[in-house]
Automatic annotation (TrEMBL), chains A, B:
<keyword id="KW-0100">Branched-chain amino acid biosynthesis</keyword>
<feature type="binding site">
    <location>
        <position position="225"/>
    </location>
    <ligand>
        <name>Mg(2+)</name>
    </ligand>
</feature>
<dbReference type="InterPro" id="IPR024084">
    <property type="entry name" value="IsoPropMal-DH-like_dom"/>
</dbReference>
<protein>
    <recommendedName>
        <fullName>3-isopropylmalate dehydrogenase</fullName>
        <ecNumber>1.1.1.85</ecNumber>
    </recommendedName>
</protein>
<dbReference type="GO" id="GO:0005829">
    <property type="term" value="C:cytosol"/>
</dbReference>
<keyword id="KW-0028">Amino-acid biosynthesis</keyword>
<feature type="binding site">
    <location>
        <position position="249"/>
    </location>
    <ligand>
        <name>Mg(2+)</name>
    </ligand>
</feature>
<feature type="binding site">
    <location>
        <begin position="288"/>
        <end position="300"/>
    </location>
    <ligand>
        <name>NAD(+)</name>
    </ligand>
</feature>
<comment type="pathway">
    <text>Amino-acid biosynthesis; L-leucine biosynthesis; L-leucine from 3-methyl-2-oxobutanoate: step 3/4.</text>
</comment>
<dbReference type="GO" id="GO:0003862">
    <property type="term" value="F:3-isopropylmalate dehydrogenase activity"/>
</dbReference>
<comment type="similarity">
    <text>Belongs to the isocitrate and isopropylmalate dehydrogenases family. LeuB type 1 subfamily.</text>
</comment>
<dbReference type="GO" id="GO:0000287">
    <property type="term" value="F:magnesium ion binding"/>
</dbReference>
<dbReference type="GO" id="GO:0009098">
    <property type="term" value="P:L-leucine biosynthetic process"/>
</dbReference>
<feature type="binding site">
    <location>
        <begin position="77"/>
        <end position="90"/>
    </location>
    <ligand>
        <name>NAD(+)</name>
    </ligand>
</feature>
<keyword id="KW-0560">Oxidoreductase</keyword>
<keyword id="KW-0520">NAD</keyword>
<dbReference type="InterPro" id="IPR004429">
    <property type="entry name" value="Isopropylmalate_DH"/>
</dbReference>
């Protein structure tokens, strides 16, 4: 039997630097734990545009469809701001999400004990925070047709379409309920049903799935504006938050920032099971390409490393190994090892990207 | 010459209670400062539904069009959750906004010194906070056509349309730039131009207006997800935030919660100038109808009172009197007078809604 396959798309900015540390960890798992992976690498985002004039080639897209998991770094940078919408780095990422049909984006917002002081929020409000946001990722206003800029009555009109079918809502709802079963059995579904019909349908379908298939899960509904407030007011009230593509984009970033350490947060984007039973999957850190610090060895590789831990758990059925990797990260943090983004006002000497990677390897 | 006219729509929940205190203040301005207003009252939201079967009658709508300013309390409550979308309390509010064409929603997020401890954020991050959010209020996905729930390929589809014309963007941009001129000359315009064409047009039009008409204003652009993060991370970086209807809904509530005292925050919704030069205008507290505490004399009337201060400033050209009222509120807070929502962990005895109103009157 062949090894499970991983396609690495390191992308732009700090993407390649943080991914280098992940590669070492992948190698370690092959050498030390008998978990060998077939790894290939390719380009995405601005890097792909520079080489090929598009942010993702058809060949790379085809490879992504074939592997067991894609590891993505980050895309974008000021250099590409001038590009046309259709070839901007983000389009590469959105194409991967859409064509792989990665409908469930899992974004844990966890506050690491060693870092609770980093939050802008008072420590007792965030210490121990552990929210899982499940964001729909392949539909809604990100992809709805019609869209574009049109001429009408002598002026231009910018148009996008928010659009959800029952089946699109149902499948991501199931992902959220399944996750809740392994956590605290509570799901908060978020929309704007008071002003949007798409939100009314969302609420109806989510409720119906709970009633029919997950009666043991406690389901509540919240408007998106209130959810933003509640995240700031009392974030620990949440277990799993289920929401659409656009609300999920905003609320998951808000929740991420509550933890105070964006450089720590991984994500998984999952689709339907493939022939081998594994879900289509892409893993990426929540942080962006951070062009301002790229190439300086300052970036924190932890978010990308924890994204690989999610890959171990969700793609490769290696929950114990995922936990091992997460524990190694916690140990290194508890030992006081810090990249520049994790330095508090008390100061100290930050370690570099590669030093952080080496410490985590050593802790494994 | 007749007195300026005010239509009071107290609405549901705590709306009538907090509005009672505003009425006393309006009377005080007539008696003591020679600023007499012609005040009429009517129903909106659930209260209007109970009486007339609709959340806003045509007669009330017509009155709102004729007065110099509408003072609104709050709408909604669990009793009305079962109602059809078309007659929900919120529809009354949305009809007022739309038919009065109140395109610029001004939502100050200010942190009162006496209350900085109430924020979930660390005190130094919010003390002195003073952001003005300008939210477009009459277009976007709240009102775009087509909308609804349709049958398609044997399943239902929920659909809404995000839609902005150049002129809709231009007029609210001007409102934001005008406000910035009287503040710190900085505007952050927020959209998702990386994924939505409506955001691309938004960015273009806002930039063009700045270049042509407000070259002295410092304009920056930010994606909505990043804005949510930055609000949590370092809220004092902002002066004026300009954004669309849906992003504004979420971000202004997030910003409001940063201040820690939602019961303190007013809002103004302004339209085009009427024949008498005054803008079409509606003023309302940011908080909702709070059905859980309605009728108990616990509600904080300050947000509604400060909304009247905004009316003095923006509708009646009485900036000095607005400041007088705001100072009275600050004085009462500095004296330690607190409604239940402003009680800290150290405890104490809260004052009632009417006591708070009386203290502010006394301070005037
Ligand atoms: C880069 C961008 C297109 C993307 C999004 O808006 O989805 C990002 O913000 C994210 O959340 O992954
Ligand atoms: C009550 C509701 C319709 C409204 C909105 O979504 O605009 C409210 O949240 C607000 O922000 O004024």
């Amino acid at each position: 039997m062949s090894n499970p396959s991983i396609l690495i798309l390191a992308g732009d900015g700090i993407g390649p630097e943080v991914m280098d540390e992940v590669k070492k960890i992948i190698t370690w798992y092959g050498d030390k734990r008998g978990l060998a992976f077939d790894v290939t690498e390719d380009l995405v985002g601005g890097a792909a545009y520079d080489a090929h004039g598009v942010p993702l080639t058809d060949e790379t897209m085809a490879k992504a469809q074939e592997v067991d998991a894609v590891m993505l770094g980050a895309v974008g940078g000021p250099k590409y701001d001038v590009l046309d919408f259709s070839v901007k780095p983000e389009r590469g990422l959105l194409r991967l999400r859409k064509e792989m049909d990665l409908f469930a984006n899992l974004r844990p917002a966890q506050c690491f004990d060693a870092l609770a002081d980093f939050s802008s929020l008072k420590k007792d409000l965030v210490a121990g925070l552990d929210i899982m946001i499940v964001r729909e990722l392949t539909s809604g206003v990100y992809f709805g047709q019609p869209r574009g800029i049109f001429e009408e009555n002598g002026e231009r009109v910018g148009l996008n379409t928010q659009r959800y079918t029952e089946s699109e809502i149902a499948r991501v709802a199931r992902s959220a309920f399944e996750l809740a079963k392994r956590r605290d059995n509570r799901v908060t579904s978020v929309e704007k049903a008071n002003v949007m019909e798409s939100g009314i349908l969302w609420r109806e379908v989510v409720t119906a799935i709970r009633d029919a298939e997950y009666p043991e899960i406690e389901l509540s509904h919240m408007y998106a504006d209130n959810c933003a407030m509640q995240l700031v007011r009392r974030p620990k009230q949440f277990d799993v938050i289920l929401t659409d593509n656009l609300f999920g984009d905003i609320l998951s970033d808000c929740a991420a920032m509550l933890t105070g350490s964006l450089g720590m947060l991984p994500s998984a984007s999952l689709g339907a099971p493939m022939a081998n039973g594994r879900p289509k999957a892409m893993y990426e850190p929540v942080h962006g390409s951070a062009p301002d610090i790229a190439g300086q060895g300052k970036a924190n590789p932890i978010a990308c490393i924890l994204s690989f831990a999610m890959a171990l758990r969700y793609s490769f059925d290696q929950g114990d190994e995922a936990t091992r990797l997460e524990k190694a990260v916690e140990k290194v943090l508890a030992d006081g090892v810090r990249t520049a983004d994790l330095m508090g006002p008390e100061g100290g000497t930050p370690v570099s990207t590669t030093e952080m990677g080496a410490k985590i390897l050593a802790a494994l």
